[in-house]
Amino acid sequence: MGVENVAEDIRSMKIRGAGRIARQAAEALMNLVDGYEGDSLDDLKNELEKGREILLSSRPTAVSLWNGVQAVLKGYRKASNLDDLKDLVKENGERFMERSNRATEVIGEMGARRVNDGDRILTHCNSSVALSVIKTAFREGKDIEVFVTESRPWRQGLITVRELAEEGVPVTLIVDSAVRWIMKDIDLVLVGADTITSNGAVINKIGTSQIALVAHEARVPFVVCAETYKFSPMTLTGKPVEIEERGSEEVAGPGELPNTVKVLNPVFDATPPEYIDYIVTEIGLIPPSASYEVIVRMLGQEFLFEYEDW
Ligand code: RI2
Hints:
- With about 300 residues, this protein is of the alpha/beta class.
- It is about 45% helix and about 10% strand.
- It has a seven-stranded mixed β-sheet. It has a three-stranded antiparallel β-sheet with strand order 5-6-8, covered by helices on one side.
- The mean pLDDT is about 95.
């Protein structure tokens, strides 16, 4: 798929999930160089720059998209001939895809070590990384049960329950407002992340912070499952994370409300680090306070300063 189509599908949430949008954006840039039939190095560089901007403007919150795009374009400005530029983008892209897929597996394995036989797990929305932990634990023979929030307004919880049911995992769907009611029966909360800031706050699907608060009150471990490219280099430089707000039609259909009623539809919220027990990444289980280290070590300052929009 081309850059424009991928960006449109990300915007309309046909392609969703922080990891998936990063991988599809990476693939779109690889396809762009693959399909380039011109013979001008500068022209292809311009096309890549345009493609980058189009992809990054599709959704504002998940830093995985920014990190994925940067990983694919790393060093492209220095390429001195067309073939080198094409090879660089393809190699970068393949490395990122491999890293992303492998990270999901590794997080599954490491996270599953902390899942105990008999655990009742609560998860929110639809995170492929949190699901990797759950499925790995189940495949290892652990007797687990999973409770899934509906996750209004998009109801991605329904994707999660279907995925788990297919796997044979005992699973129960609950409405978002039932979280505090169910928490007394929960042993572990597992969620994904769209962005993790340098101070260890986790930006994830709206409602995540309420779940964290309730888990904290009930002394239930609250665990985030996220690859290192969900950590935001920009937050090191003081840039706030933009929380996406989507249209009112996602919350209430046409004619359902008097036209004087306003609807607010924020898509994500921030869970402060003090409510997070640990973050499972592909480089280990870390406390939220180690987020600064992850950003500096894994993403690096040079990487950050290669672009103007950090
Ligand atoms: P993985 C999703 O965002 C959810 O907030 C989910 O928790 C997060 O991405 C991480 O998903 P959206 O695209 O990368 O549904 O773990 O708005 O799949």
